[in-house]
Amino acid sequence: MTTKDYFLADEPALLALAETLANVVKAGQSKAKQVLTIYLIGELGAGKTTFSRGFIQALGHQGKVKSPTYTLVESYQLDAWQVHHFDLYRLADPEELEFMGIRDYLDSNTIILAEWPQRGAGVLPEPDIEISIDYAETARKLVLGALTTRGRELLDKL
Ligand code: ADP
Ligand code: MG
Predict the structure, then answer these.
(1) Residue 58: alpha-carbon gap to chain centroid
(2) Ligand 2 center from residue 10 Cα (angstroms)
């Protein structure tokens, strides 16, 4: 698996990496025919939602990015993309995603960002990129791993 490691001293550094990844995704937009899926792994407070906020705003969303903790999903219609930001912490059973109609979320030009993706195992699409975030006091250690060809192409450009 292709991986990239980052040591990010503070929140602005983490937001900057999220923005860089969003810019790489934007640059590869012609390949956007299939869904791009990004998993975010890490404990509560690690920075999964913060990373998602940086990513979604860099893709062109101007307003707030709310944590989907209670709603399970927040969706954004951007010019070129639809982004579905999931937080499955409260999901009791992956089947709930079927009842939510997850298949309708899997259109072209779609990006899935998923916090606590383990809880949607088997129903959530497999990831192109998996991002693990670990605490290092107020800094964070991130490992980005590519699990598909498309994921590898994106990470190679970081
Ligand atoms: P999660 O979604 O993983 O539960 P959040 O992104 O909601 O976490 O929260 C991360 C918290 O950690 C925020 O309050 C943020 O300000 C804080 N924080 C402190 N240092 C960092 C850092 N280096 N990178 C990201 N967040 C940080
Ligand atoms: Mg969160």
Answers:
(1) 13
(2) 17
Nearest CA to ligand 1 atom 6: 47
How far apart are the CA of 108 and the centre of ligand 1, in A? Answer: 30
Q: Phi/psi at 99 (nearest 5 deg)?
A: -65, -30
Distance between CA 136 and CA 32 in Å, rounded?
A: 35
Tens-place pLDDT, residues 99-113: 988 888 888 889 999
Q: Ligand 2 centroid to 120 CA: how many Å?
A: 15
Q: How far apart are CA 120 and CA 38, in angstroms?
A: 13
Over the stretch 1-54, which tens digit does the pLDDT of each residue have? 899 999 999 999 999 999 999 999 999 876 656 899 999 999 999 999 999 999
Ligand approaching nearest to the C-alpha of 40: 1
Domain 2-156 has CATH 3.40.50.300: yes
Q: What is the ipTM of this complex?
A: 0.98
What is the structure's pLDDT at 31?
61
